[in-house]
What does this fold into?
Amino acid sequence: MQASGVVMRSTSILRLFISLNPPPEIVSRLRDQQTFLRERLDERYGLDLSVRWTKPAQFHLTLLFLGNLFWQQVEWIRQQIAETVAAAKTLPTLQLSGFGCFPVFQSPRILWIGVVPDARLHTLQTDLLTRFSGHLALDSRDTSYPHITLARITAGHRLGGFSELLRHSAGPGAPPSVPWKTTSVSLMQSIPGAHGVEYSCLAEFVAKSNVA
It folds into this structure.
């Protein structure tokens, strides 16, 4: 297992999460899914829907949200992640498939592509939660519904037939499911800005089986 160096920022408070970040070939496949979903939404709702599409460089699958922490805690957090990845030895191989939304179909805010249930992913999330829950204020619900966010919808839209649209979009004619053999776990910082949130990778932990 190897970890990259940490690039610290001047702020003393960091909003952190742990994620799986897709490599370029998976990002390209996810862009196909995003384009397909965009076309379906345009056909059905057109200009009546205000959507902010996730930048491909920011696609990620959150394993655990850690919240606002002091930069002095980062080294300890890195150590915990490194030990978790080393113990796992092999990281999950995932299938990304099926569209969904949060919080409800009638008024969606987040559009995502889901993950076929995977035992190794569940174990990885559980191991991380166990390591951090005794030291940080975490909620086990943060590990629910593994997904990659494809878009965010402006609040206030009431959309009729949205559940049917998503269900049909995952059916015949949709892009095929995306197989993804994960090889590393990343410690990420969420940085608010004038044009939305940006993500910065502070450290990457490569599974032992993927080290040459």
